[in-house]
Write a structure and sequence with these properties.
It comes from Leucobacter triazinivorans. This is Sugar ABC transporter ATP-binding protein. Keywords: ATP-binding, Nucleotide-binding. With 310 residues, the protein is of the alpha/beta class. The protein has a domain of 193 residues: Rossmann fold, CATH 3.40.50.300. The protein has twelve helices and twelve strands. β7 and β8 form a beta hairpin. The longest helix is centred in the C-terminal third of the chain and has 17 residues. The termini are far apart. The structure holds adenosine-5'-triphosphate and magnesium ion. The site of magnesium ion (MG) has 2 residues, from α2.
Length: 310
Amino acid sequence: MNTREAASPAAAAPLVELRAAGKRYGNIIALRDVSLEVSPGEVTCVLGDNGAGKSTLIKIIAGLHQNTEGAYLVDGQEVKFTSPREALNRGIATVYQDLAVAPLMPVWRNFFLGSEVSTGWGPFRRLDVEFMRETAKKELLDMGIDLRDVDQPIGTLSGGERQCVAIARAVYFGAKVLILDEPTAALGVKQSGVVLRYIIQARDRGLGVIFITHNPHHAYPVGDRFLLLKRGQSIGYHEKSEISLEELTGLMAGGAELEQLVHELRQVGTSTDEVRVIRDEIEEDTAAGVGHVPVTEAVNIRDLPETEGK
Ligand SMILES: Nc1ncnc2c1ncn2[C@@H]1O[C@H](COP(=O)(O)OP(=O)(O)OP(=O)(O)O)[C@@H](O)[C@H]1O
Ligand SMILES: [Mg+2]
């Protein structure tokens, strides 16, 4: 390959770029016309409700699936990965939500899973346990993760800690792009905070981070750019300076639906005007002989007891 020619456009090119990318599974269009740029030292958040196409998007970037439309570029060059290994070789590491760990193996062993380090030669070749144990401990400490003991089975760590080990591992093995698929989805507030802190750590080390979530409250504090997906299409791609947390929340599919729900609930009768309207309707119905509810008892939801909770 002619590196001199490739060098100049690549110098300014984003680590990862999608240009009007799309993905069809047979007749199903899972993703349509999505563009995205990931630069070093930046966190790009991908937000969207269930079925919005988030996983499809990261599967393309991670090399699991190929885009059927548009282009996927790494360091300014178009790529067609045929396996996650190819993406990994280009420095694109993915931490899936159901972390593929061996729960009974020690933390250090999981840290080096699939990339074990050996020592010795010929028949004397063996795993360099000491090196791997010390390295895992040091790398975790460098990321601010202070585990009591790297010999403990990884299955004994909390979900948040396991995510952090996976992030530290990707950083150690030289990832340039780190994809996190809903790392905070199953976590409580405190654990989510810990994971968000390591996302920032990875960013500060110069990685380009792609953070998938459906929670704008997790995305906003750490994100530099926000891609909003809905039914496979982009409904917004914003830099942080262009958008507030409130707007981000409002743009999310849940936001609009929540507003509709509030509206409907209001109609059921939290405002006196609306109660009056409903009452009038019932009165008319009663006059016409439709209903049999005495008007006085008809509605005033606010006067009802606090629900007969079970
Ligand atoms: N392998 C597949 N074959 C056919 N359709 C698929 C396939 N994978 C995804 N889809 C469809 O593509 C759409 C987007 O799915 P995707 O998994 O990307 O959504 P998502 O945003 O990750 O949702 P969730 O939040 O539930 O994980 C869905 O309608 C889904 O049914
Ligand atoms: Mg998904």
